[in-house]
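This section describes the prediction task in plain terms. A model, or a person checking by hand, is given the sequence of a single protein chain and must write out its three-dimensional structure as a string of tokens. No templates, partner chains or ligands are provided. The sample shown here is typical of the held-out split.
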Amino acid sequence: MADPAAVRRAVEATLGEFGRLDILVNCAGVLGREQPFLEREDAEWRRVLDVNLHGVYHACRAALPPMLARGWGRIVTISSGARRGAPLLAPYAASKGAVVALMRSLANAYARQGVLANCVEPGRALTEMVVPRFSPEFLAAPPGVAIGRYSSADEVAVVVNYLCSEENTYTAGAVWRVAGGAG
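The expected answer:
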């Protein structure tokens, strides 16, 4: 994701194989080290933003032209509730807030041309980004959400699938929370 040439090659390979590009889902991401802001190394800041923000930028830059040429496309980027501020994950939080602004900008720029861009903001889903960070005891306890359990990646995928589908004709620039309750 952080290598613009590699992203362009992936889009070109998709176009070569299928003749078109309809959907882009930006779901690659890195959390980075959990540490106080003043202890963070600049290289770690850049690494997280290179994948989480610049990777989304590169992918959108590569995918938008063929979508616009067809007059149809769907872009969905995975955000995070950390975008509201996460003291020990400042670069991750900044990157996830920035991708929301980027998707809203693209939605406002290209929705009339048939390309709808949105974000999905999962609550804590039991994925490889979450599970290793917590003890089995912590994960066994119900989280503090109305539904009283963690989500699965499949539950998040249902929302992503809808936003990428032909059924989605009017949602652009949204942040769909799949978080187990209001808040």
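For orientation: The chain is about 45% helix and 10% strand.
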